[in-house]
TrEMBL record:
Signal peptide: 1-19
Alphabetized Gene3D superfamilies for the sequence: Trypsin-like serine proteases
Keyword Nuclease found: no
PANTHER family, sorted: PROTEASE DO-LIKE 5, CHLOROPLASTIC (PTHR43019:SF23), SERINE ENDOPROTEASE DEGS (PTHR43019)
Native organism: Rugamonas rubra
Pfam families, per the entry: Trypsin_2 (PF13365)
Source superkingdom: Bacteria
Protein name, as recorded: Trypsin-like peptidase domain-containing protein
Top-level taxonomy: Bacteria, Pseudomonadati, Pseudomonadota, Betaproteobacteria, Burkholderiales
Signal found in the keyword field: yes
Length: 250
């Protein structure tokens, strides 16, 4: 019995390391996670929030989901695309330009000016296996709750073929599920709950803080309003190795 007790005590810290490191990982991630939105001087409010992004590389590159910015690329609206940096109860707006878009994998790279922000490191998504516990930080419901970081945890329930969101919706609905068997690449299916505004959030390891994916859609039962009222608890993320391809010099 004594030897069994010793073995249990030796195993205990390793099993709970992730729980201890998560608060530190969250604090680090919050310095890199930004809102994605637009600015229009004559509009009220002038700033419009549409999704989440996170900083990588030299601190001036921001990754988000391509569908987050697709409606903001209409020059006729005289809107300025940019990122929102939370500063207490307010936010600093920084104009951004679109550097690259990968619509197939629902990824976009933005470039901001000014002082670099803390960057997140990319992990090798090919090393992620089903059952791995990860976290994602973003701005669910955006301006409705204020620009305050919110973190959710989720296990990789499955590595499954993807169904991309349509141009008129940011969520996966029942009709798009039929595309799963015809899709050319795999994504992470999580048992964590994401909400509108979470698209573009980094999916990261709670120990190292390395990014392994980008939240891009949730499974919606029924109408899109159900994503808030009765969330399915099924969320999808694009693996981070597609980000590496997006960032590769051309």
């Amino acid at each position: 019995m004594r030897y069994c007790l010793i073995a249990l005590l030796l195993f205990w810290p390793a099993r709970h390391a992730g729980a201890a490191d998560l608060p530190r990982a969250i604090e680090a991630a919050k310095r890199s996670v930004v809102g994605i939105g637009s600015f229009q001087k004559l509009r009220s409010p002038a700033i419009n929030f549409v999704g989440t992004g996170f900083v990588v590389g030299d601190g001036l590159s921001v990754i988000t989901a391509a569908h987050v910015i697709q409606d903001l690329q209409n020059a006729e609206r005289n809107e300025t695309l940019g990122v929102l940096i939370p500063m207490g109860e307010s936010a600093q707006f920084r104009a951004a330009s679109v550097v690259a878009i990968d619509r197939e994998h629902d990824l976009a790279q933005l470039r901001i000016a000014g002082a670099p922000l803390p960057a997140m490191q990319l992990g090798d998504s090919a090393a992620v296996a089903e059952g791995r516990a990860l976290a994602f930080t973003g701005f669910p419901l955006g301006m409705l709750l204020g620009l305050h970081h919110v973190t959710h945890r989720g296990m990789v329930s499955s590595i499954t073929p993807v169904a991309m969101p349509s141009s008129s919706s940011r969520k996966l609905d029942v009709k798009l599920v039929g595309q799963l068997q015809r899709s050319p690449y795999a994504v992470f299916q999580l048992d964590g709950t994401a909400y509108p505004g979470n698209s573009g959030s980094p999916l990261y390891d709670p120990d190292s803080g390395q990014v392994y994916g980008v939240i891009n859609m949730v499974y919606v039962k029924g109408l899109k309003e159900a994503a808030i009222a009765t969330p399915s608890g099924i969320t999808y993320a694009i693996p981070s190795n597609f980000i590496r391809e997006l960032l590769r010099p051309r």
